[in-house]
User: What shape does this take?
Amino acid sequence: MSWRRLTRRSLAVSAVLSLGVVVPVDVVVVRVLRGLDWTWGAIAAVAAVGAALIVAGVVAYDVTRLRVTRWRLTRERLELRSGVVSRQHRSVPRDRIRSVDLRADLVRRAFGLTVVKIGTGGHGDESAELTLDPLPVAEAEALRRVLLSDAPADAFLAEDPVVAGAPSRGDEPVPGSETSRGSGTSRVDEAFLGSGRSRETEASRRNGPAQRDEAASGHRPARGDEPLGAARAVEVVARLRWPWVRYAPLTVWSFAGAALVLGALYKPLDALGVEVFSGETAALVWGWLTERPWVTIPVVVAGNVVAGVTGAVLLFVESWGGYRLEREPGRPAAPADAGPDTDSSPATPHAARPHGRPAGSHEGPAPRDGRWRVRRGLLTSRSLSLDELRLRGVELREPLLLRLGGGARVKAVATGLGKAQEGETEDVAALTPPLPRAEAARIAARVAGERLPEPVPHPAAARRRRVRRALIAAVAPAVALAATATWIRNGGAEAWTRGGGPGAWARTDDVRAWIRDGALEAWVWGAAAAVLLLVLPLALLAALAGYRSLGHGLGGRHLVSRSGAVVRRTVALDRGGIVGWTITQSYVQRRAGLLTVSATTAAGDGHYDVLDVGGDTGLELAAHAVPGLLDPFLVRRGPRTGTGRG
Amino acid sequence: MRAPDAGDGAGGVALRPPRHQADPRAVAWWTAQALILAVPVAGAAVAAYWLFTGHPVWLGVLVAGFAVCCLALALAGPRASYRVERWEVTDDAVYTRKGWLTHTWRVAPMSRIQTVDTARGPVQRLFGLADVTVTTASAAGPITIEGLDHELAAELAARLTAITQATPGDAT
Assistant: This one.
């Protein structure tokens, strides 16, 4: 099958983006030349030439890049040749493709383009991703659908006249469909923005571009493409509700707001010659602060919070505007599927399942062959599609502030998700913005495909352990400080400075007088009291919150575990995705009859722990979660022997 | 006190220890390893006391105590590990236990094993020993069975590889 190229419209995008470099460069040029007393005409000429050179350079680079970049999709593999300096040829088996990520910033959207990233698993290194930058939106959408359904490659390639033999126009990937694609593009963009629409129109709109392309290409019947979406409705599981924006400020970033704003403004101001961090401004600010501290400090704090909250809200609006979480069902059962050429009809979704899922994992009757898709972004539109087969569970995250506000967020636990991209504010695995807890629980249950059990609390020994730890953490420093204070009172410090123990700095008369007056002693006592009064209550609160978070449960398909004092995480891990157990028991846990059961998995963090669970309960939990795996290594005693073997 | 290892009356569930221990030669190897670290440290402490101080008695006692502790740990530690570290490979799973203060049991099902490696360091070779490392798809780290007789290790690796290859898929 023939190789395809990226679209030439990329050149226009590069030209526009290069203006981002041109503007600051020209600003600097103007400043410097003004300083040299050039005339405005000459300055304008130099600036224009500089701008032209930069744009030309960037476009020339992009021409080269487009020239060397080629990709193709075959029945088994996705291949990409790229690299201006060092040539690369990468080839990925299609059954390794786990996620498809579409991302289009404002400029690319204006030109109807999008960047496609294809995640192939592996442990998050960059080689696990193939990037096609950019493709026309319609082509990207079609590619996305083909890659994540088991459709044959030629269902996608059939749309392409190049395949059918139009080599004379080989430069443009989908020639001849320019006009129709134009309209298709705008429609897809509307869909990205996601104002309210019924499912039926949604499905038909989303299919629009592909169908139009088929119609435009007209060379071959679009076999196998029809079942990709037209007959099956996309289920919209969640859609942005603007009241959710109230949860946006509930992050620590709200308190660091002004610092962030200053940091963001520093560079442009610096380029314009305004020095933010100079001794002069610092002295000015300090003078203003200390003049009337009772007025200025609250003003600064309030300004900081206002800036932080505004920033958090703006960030929420940009990141989550047009948010939609949807599930696209998989291919229908074989009979509906059998097209004219059965040889190219794909394997049933079942065959594509990872083998070796333990026998217990087929309890959930619902087919797990759909695809999850998160769409979001007001300015930069992003779309992440995730094969349901690669989904190994779901996580409910409640950081402290969000928890106090009654909110939560939902994350996917999946294999083959890359690391967060540079400049990206959200976790790649994020499925929802912060939203009300009940709504988050509903979405988590829908993603998991079953009602998740309410976690069972852990034994009181786990609470005792946490409280004891908190007491030690707070009381030990306090006792040490009190002992130091006593030592100072008894003349220890004075004798020490006289004896030449510490360095010369402590042997001055000032320091000695300070010690003799009892000032040092008072400070140390004060520190001890502060530790007892501030750290101890906080540590105890954290200990109790940590205990309240602890819990575990076993659903038909998932192992649920909950923990975390500050960030409470409830993870539902697909029992079929568990690739082993690690059970640890420290000396202290052994005395308390507790242990930690850790399920290892290929997805997400690599292991998910059930912390400080009662010894018997924990082992039974592990034994039931993956039937047959742990049982041969367990010894059961007493009346319960033999029970609970599923 | 309800240690899963210990008998604990009615209704208890416990993990039984895995069947096999490391090769007895492993004790000698681990001791050699520990001594390579402990002897220089203890020696350095004694030498520093001898060369750089005025030989106060209290410091002498402290240094002597430190040196003796180092050597005692190096001699006793490997024996303790030998008693604690156990392993077992069934047709369905790999099962190991290790750790003295913190016990760690690990189980990996055969169907999820991705790679099997054996490793023999130069000193290890003198003792005729080898380690077997079993990797699964998890980022939680591989399972290592340490200090096996090298022929046994090779045999075990071959057996594991055969079983693993017989199961298709990417074991995630």
